[in-house]
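Team,

Forwarding the record for the chain on the shared tracking sheet. I've put the sequence and predicted structure together so nobody has to dig through attachments.
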Amino acid sequence: MPKQPFISIPLDIPDVRVLQTELTKDGEFILTVESTLTSTTCRRCGRTITERHGLDEPRLLRHLPILGRVVYLRLRPKRFRCRFCDGHPTSTQQLDWYDPNALHTKAFERHLILQLVNSTLSDVQAKEDVTADALLGILDRWIAKTVEWDTLPLFTILGIDEIALLKGHRDFVAVISARSSQDELYVLAVLPDRLQATVVAWLKTIPTIIRSRITTVCTDIWDGYIAAVEQVLPDAQIVLDRFHVARHYRDAVDTLRKQEVRRLKQELPKAAHATLKRTLWPFRKRAGDLDPAEQERLDALLAYSPALRQAYTLREELTLIFDTARSKADGLRRIRFWCGRVERSGLRCFDDFLKLLESRLDLIANYFIDHQTSSFVEGLNNKLKVLKRRCYGLRNVVRLFQRLTLDLDGYRRFSPWRAPTFRGAHGNS
């Protein structure tokens, strides 16, 4: 058998020396190591002790793979006797590169937590040959179950939205997030429901110094969120998300489209029914995004229904207001003028939306100040939906928070190829 070539690889573990290297019949490396430290801390009095008292039971710890091979470190921790305490108790030496109750080195745990980013427990379990319980333990050791305020960068914008854990809009949970000055997104909480009292209680847990810096809260139209922010963050500017508002008036016009298409199919001869086909997306698109074929199909539909043409025109005009108004006063003036046009049109499809404008116009118009939206919150919710599907349901809100935090911040925190993000901008409170 030809002689195998060898290379030297640094172990990158402090305060140990390698005593023996073994390649098992299964192709795994077992490295026997020992500590080079000559003292430890007494478990009773906390003093440094140096009197040796044998070795503890051997431990076998999974470590980072080498050249695709599984690696274990075999270690017998040193024991020391305390001459200061009554009875001279012994203490086992604790080393920084592994946790006393863990089956893996911290370096391997960091590798596993990185593998969990945008993945599932079952996938990592199969790839790395570890148990689900071990992965959950690692998740708890590396990812906090609640937000750690002193690790966050400076932020002034808060976002609140919800997501349904079950199909059919059931079991809503509130998702609260922040956008940093570098436009990075951070999840702050996943609350078990969207009740006002629940949101108020959580907002009150925000440290005072951080709370005082929040200038803007982007939220949807849910009254509980608005009331909670007004109660706890009275100085923050509430911005009702433009896209939630747009969904209201666009859905209203789309409902009219469905009614008109049903009516036209009953009234028009069958030969004309073909002109009603493939009009859904041309109708829903913005006018400026239509290609010639789509514009032709849309014109054919609107030619049959003057009411639908009028509603479509009003919809596009309101969208244009949101696109072009450059101050709150200008936005308010133009929206009020638009409302007058709707009332004079005689169309009933906008009735519910007009009631919304009547009650929440000031908060909606806050959008025109800095053009803030909840797009970053919606992006977070999309990630959460993907996470739910990937994990085949995830009902535990603590696990939701941990996994969402890991998916958002995992590469920044754990990838060896990325520089760490500056953290702790808020200081102590």
